[in-house]
Amino acid sequence: MRIVTADQMKELDRRASEEFGVPSIVLMENAGLRTFDVVYKLLDRVQGSTVAVICGRGNNGGDGLVVARHLHQIGVDVRALIVGKTGDMKGDAGVNLEIALKSGIAVEEVTEIAQVRRALAHSDLVVDALFGTGIRGEITGLAGEVIDAINESIRPVVAVDLPSGLDADTGQIAGRCVWADETVTFALPKIGLATYPGAAYAGQVSVAEIGIPERAFQTAGIGTFLTSAEDVAARLPARPPDAHKGTFGHAALIAGSVGMTGAAAMAAASAVRVGAGLVTLGVPESLNDILEVKVTEAMTVPLPETDERSFSPAALERALELIDRCDAVAVGPGLSRNPGTVAFVLELLPQIEKPMVLDADGLNAVSQDVSVLERLKAPAVITPHPGEMARLTGTQAAAIQSNRLKAARDTAARFGVVVALKGAGTVTASPDGEAWINPTGSPAMASGGMGDILTGAIAGLLAQGLSVTDTAICGVYIHGRAGEIAAEEVGEAGAAATDLLPLLPRTIEELRKESK
């Protein structure tokens, strides 16, 4: 599903009116009517219900007045409160203000917060139509007090297009933001509704069709998408009935060090669970016996090690021989930051000629010489969390988190790799500028080892012939969905990374069935 910025949505509105002949006031009417539908379903009763519609002076306020009119027509006691001067409402919003007044709707111009508090105290539900996609800067003054009053009222809230105070492009909060129970967004989801912290403020999001022609979307050049189950199912590799293990590829993993054999074992098991035909784990030689016990389905290859029992530079030749026999490779889980291991990784990566995924200590090694990414021979996916991304880009994790979409896109373009920036709403960006925001996942996944499961899943899918971009999109979605199931079956507190392993093939099977 396409997902847009505020400017892209504004341009779609303009084109609908100017190029396709859909009057803007028709778009506003449709937007308000679709929001009314949601409000109506939330009201326990119609007769006797009271709804406060909090409106700004712009088009979002105009949408709110349409909602108020339709509620009034079915007998709801509706109060429209305009935060600002009603005389400032122009254009389509001004037209709907005039209609509301002539229809006998109680419209009140708000000059002090006490007016809003009184209305909220006597309301069963609140419609937030204060600000839409055009919010810029921190919200202060009366508007800020209104948002605080809405949140303090503990009334159900339906937000019109966006919760007021939410940045449509980044998901950041403009000082304060309405906590909505439901958000009705128009035509297409806005990026801020799918990225955190904004996604937490939006509640249940529904997308309302308001009359913009499909052709306008197709020719808009929108390059950001919200990954869906259908997107993933369409990309999954086929499983022909006459297949054998060679059909589904051979994944190699360069992973592990003393104290971190679990990372290697989980990544290998994950590659198996997503359907790779063969998996071989390259490990420091003194740890081989341990990994032989930990992983049953994967093969192991012992490689030269340092005195600290991590990979040494002497492992290079044999590691390349292993990778050459395989179809894809993962480098990183549990490698350690031993200087000899870092040197090994930095020498290994530019010589790999198979699609790869880099994670964890593989990325920490690269952060010491990021030019390695620019010298890769083969396509690659990197899967940093915000701290690892900050080290790669020479910035701070807070800066990464302030605009995750931009950070992922910029890094993908800079290094020519696919970036899967992990976290709630993982962002996958390709070097050509396209990006996908992942909607799956759970707080149950906030525990050690989850990243190793993702790395193995991506390696296993890469081995089956998917492109690095498709692999990242699918791997992230499947991993997150398995985490959701784990939360349902085990609970959010205490779910372990290994709980996801049996859920990976189950998730893939569900996706296949849903696509038929």
Task: Describe it.
The protein has two domains: 210 residues, YjeF N-terminal domain (Rossmann fold); 287 residues, Ribokinase (UDP-N-acetylmuramoyl-L-alanine:D-glutamate ligase, 3-Layer(aba) Sandwich). It contains 22 helices and 17 strands. β15 and β16 form a beta hairpin. α2 packs across α3 and α21 packs across α22. The longest helix is centred in the C-terminal third of the chain and has 22 residues. The two termini are 19 Å apart. The model has no long low-confidence stretch (mean pLDDT 95).
Runs in which pLDDT lies below 50 for 5 or more consecutive residues are: none
| Percent in helix | 40-55%
CATH topology of the largest domain: UDP-N-acetylmuramoyl-L-alanine:D-glutamate ligase
What is the CATH architecture term of the largest domain? 3-Layer(aba) Sandwich
Query: For the largest beta sheet, what order do the strands appear in spatially?
Result: 8-17-16-15-14-13-12-9-10-11
| Total of DSSP H or I helical runs spanning 4+ residues | 22
Count up the domains: 2
Overall structural class, as computed from helix and strand content, comes to alpha/beta
> Span from first to last CA?
19 Å
Rounded to an integer in angstroms, the radius of gyration calculated over CA atoms is 26 Å
CATH H level, superfamily name of the largest domain: Ribokinase
Largest sheet: 10 strands, mixed
Question: Any key phrases for this structure?
Answer:
17 strands, 10-stranded mixed β-sheet, alpha/beta, 22 helices, Rossmann fold, 2 domains, UDP-N-acetylmuramoyl-L-alanine:D-glutamate ligase, 516 residues, elongated
